[in-house]
Amino acid sequence: MRYSQGRFSGLLKPLSHFIDITGFIGLTFILSPQLDSFLLKCYLLVSWFVLSYKNGFYQVERFAKLTKIMSLLFRQFVVFFLILFAFIGFFKEHSLSRLLLVQYLIISFLWITIFKFLMFFLLHRYRVLLGGNIRKTVVVGNNVKAKQLIHIFENRPQFGYDFKKSFVPKSKTFSVQECLKYIQNEQVDEIYCSVAELSNEQLGQIVDFADNNLKTVKFIPDNKFIYNKHLRFDYYDFLPILSLREIPLEVSLNAFLKRSFDILFSFLVVVGVLSWLTPLLALLIKWESRGPVFFKQIRHGINGEEFYCFKFRSMAVNKDADKAQATKGDMRVTQIGNFMRKTSIDELPQFINVLFGQMSIVGPRPHMAYHTEIYGNSVDKYMVRHFVKPGITGLAQVRGYRGEILESRDIVNRVRFDIFYVENWSMALDLKIVFDTVYNVVKGEEMAY
């Protein structure tokens, strides 16, 4: 089983956020002392983030047209203009010059417009001249729309698509398995399917393969296609394309909010708890058994990337640590380890993983590499969990699916909750899971051993 590596240029959208914010906050220092107000800066930041989220201001895809960017800029600044002037009425700041606000808005608009267009054109040149920011694609279809899409891939290098191959579903030599084998061997990122030429069974095979191997499936639509709430229209030139799964955490503002919460919360835990708790536990762990204080284990994170997951060592050193899960009454667990596992204290070093950006506070729990190989090949859609960062706690855990996997339905239900989380993330859901986790730790859990 292969894992997807580096499919997205994750720094581009956060960089856009940073430069925009630096610009319009920096102007409050430069233009006039009247704008140098902490309340105004907070108001501007909150308003900009909320408005950007609602307008999808930073969701400019590689196939976007200049007209879309101009439309986004217009909507963003018309509403931002109204929100900024509302500041005077909301906070009774009648001494604030209206002319100064207009001047501030015009300069902010010019700054962000110039940068947004500059980024747009530089990315185009980067893809054309240097071949960077590229996604490998295949097309499964041979009708007019499929050929139009191939033409776009081949003649719009600025979009950043590397067209590898087309498959003809209605030919005698076509085989879904051969197609999937090619996609796997060539490490293709995106699969475009003409729904008019594939049976439901063939579409199901391709979708299942994509889910289990971290590939993106998109559809060239046809009237017979059954639409559902997870489908989204995009336009490549004038050709409509459907995306199967929309992941909320691929929205840059959502990712920014979640990462900000992760950094703040984990920093407080590391400084406020681990700084004094670690020396005490280290003495108890070393006193009871030989071995390191920390236990580290290779696990798979976002896009299947490997990382070392940290825990306080709760077992005597043993050769089965990377394969065998802890069971009830496990003789490998030490006395202090038993206490740590029941109270989940052994998981606290994973806040260091969160600070490093390898994990999140909330997300699908990362499994041992050995178990990922097993379940990735045996549990349907298991790999969908790896579209987001793994978490210290997760929806499956607070719904009773933590600890040892006793039956096949345990892992199936765990994956089901993980996929629901991936597709329905919200900050409110994260906070609820954190609250439920703390509540479960305080009351005690049957599966905590």
UniProtKB/TrEMBL annotation:
Any single Gene Ontology cellular-component annotation: membrane
Membrane association type: Multi-pass membrane protein
GO MF term set: phosphotransferase activity, for other substituted phosphate groups
UniProt entry keywords in alphabetical sequence: Membrane, Transferase, Transmembrane, Transmembrane helix
Record domain Bacterial sugar transferase: where: 258-442
Main location (coarse class): membrane
TM regions (residue ranges): 69-90, 102-123, 263-285
Keyword flag NAD: no
Subcellular location: Membrane
UniProt cross-references to InterPro entries, sorted A to Z: Bact_transf, EPS_sugar_tfrase
UniProt family annotation: Belongs to the bacterial sugar transferase family.
Family matches, as NCBIfam families: EPS_sugtrans (TIGR03025)
Name of the molecule in the record: Exopolysaccharide biosynthesis polyprenyl glycosylphosphotransferase
Organism: Robertkochia marina
Organism lineage: Bacteria, Pseudomonadati, Bacteroidota, Flavobacteriia, Flavobacteriales
